[in-house]
Design goal:
about 300 residues; mainly alpha; about 0% strand; globular
C-alpha cells in the first residue's frame, strides 16, 4: 500500500494523457509482466468454475475499473482531498467487514487499531471542501476498494496471487477502453510522450505488478481485517514520495498523521496476550477453589 501512495511521483507526468486509456495501457502492460512471471514460475492454467469466473470478473470490474472511474470523477467533482479522506476509512471498513465475510466476529483490538489508522490517514490527507456528487463518487470508490480485497479471498486458494493479479488486469483492459469511449469520447488512446511513457510504465510495474502481488500474497496470511490496516500507508507513501522528489515538504500534520498510521498498524498486528489457564477443580471441592490463590509459605 505504501507503493500505491507513490503514484504521486508520476501524477504530473501523465496529467494530460487520456485518463481511462492510460489506465488501460497500465493494466495491459502489468498483465503482460504478470503472465510472463507466472509462466517463468511454471504456473499453468487453472480450470475455474462458472461462479469463480463471475467472482473474478466482478473483482476486476469493481476493484480495478469502477474504482478508477469513481476516484477520477470524485476528484473532478470535489478535488483530491474528499476521496482521499473517504478512502482513509478502508482500514476500519475491512476490520469490520473482513471477519464477517469469513464467518468470524470483528476483533475489538483490530477495530480500535483501524480507528487510529483512519485518524492518521485523515490527518495526513488533510481536510477539504466537498459536495454531494464528490461524496457519492468517493463512497463508490470505497465500496470498490473493499471489493478488491473481499472478492479475492475465495479466489486466492485455487489461483494464487500472481495469476489473480494477472487475470484481473487482463479483464480490466476492455472495461477501461469502454469507459474511455463513454467519458473521454474523442481521445481514448494516443502515442504517449517520453515522460508519459515513463509514468505509465511506473504505474504498471510498481503500483500494479509489484503492489498487487504483494497485497494478494499478504491478504490470506494476515486476514482482510489486519491487512486492511496497511491501507493507511497510502497517504504516507504520497508524503514520503513528495518529500524525496522535492515536490513539497511534509508539514507537522503530515508527520503526526504518519505516526498515527504506523502506531495503529503496530497495534493491530500485535498478537493478543495469552489468557492465564484456569487450574482444574478437584472432585468434591467447591468451584471457588479454582479462583483461590495458590498456597505458599507463610511468614
Amino acid at each position: 500500500m505504501f507503493l500505491v501512495g507513490t503514484l504521486a511521483a508520476v501524477a504530473d507526468a501523465i496529467e494530460d494523457y487520456p485518463v481511462y486509456g492510460g489506465q488501460a495501457l497500465r493494466y495491459a502492460l502489468a498483465a503482460v509482466i504478470l503472465l510472463a512471471a507466472a509462466r517463468a514460475r511454471g504456473l499453468g492454467p487453472v480450470r475455474l468454475r462458472p461462479r469463480q469466473w463471475a467472482l473474478l470478473a466482478a473483482l476486476s470490474l469493481t476493484g480495478l475499473v469502477l474504482f478508477n472511474v469513481c476516484v477520477v470523477e470524485a476528484t473532478r467533482a470535489a478535488g483530491p482531498a474528499l476521496p482521499g479522506i473517504v478512502l482513509g476509512t478502508v482500514p476500519l471498513a475491512l476490520a469490520l467487514a473482513g471477519p464477517v465475510v469469513t464467518g468470524a466476529r470483528p476483533s475489538p483490538r483490530v477495530v480500535g487499531a483501524g480507528l487510529v489508522v483512519v485518524a492518521g490517514a485523515s490527518l495526513a490527507t488533510g481536510a477539504g471542501s466537498g459536495n454531494p456528487a464528490g461524496l457519492a463518487w468517493s463512497l463508490g470508490a470505497l465500496a470498490c476498494e473493499l471489493c478488491f480485497s473481499l472478492l479475492a479471498l475465495p479466489l486466492l486458494p485455487p489461483i494464487g496471487p500472481v495469476r489473480l493479479s494477472a487475470w484481473s488486469a487482463v479483464l480490466a483492459v476492455p472495461f477501461l477502453l469502454v469507459a474511455g469511449v463513454v467519458f473521454d469520447r474523442d481521445e481514448v488512446l494516443r502515442v504517449p510522450t517520453a515522460a508519459e511513457a515513463a509514468g505509465l510504465a511506473y504505474l504498471a510495474v510498481v503500483v500494479t505488478t509489484v503492489a498487487f502481488f504483494l497485497w494478494y500474497r499478504s491478504l490470506p496470511r494476515l486476514g482482510a481485517d489486519r491487512a486492511g490496516l496497511f491501507a493507511g500507508m497510502i497517504p504516507v507513501g504520497a508524503i514520503v514520495t513528495a518529500a524525496l522528489l522535492g515536490i513539497s515538504a511534509p508539514s507537522a500534520a503530515d508527520l503526526a498523521g504518519a505516526a498515527l498510521v504506523i502506531g495503529g498498524i503496530a497495534l493491530g498486528l500485535r498478537p493478543p496476550s495469552p489468557r492465564r489457564p484456569v487450574p482444574p477443580v478437584p472432585r468434591g471441592a467447591p468451584r471457588s477453589a479454582a479462583l483461590a490463590p495458590p498456597e505458599g509459605p507463610t511468614i
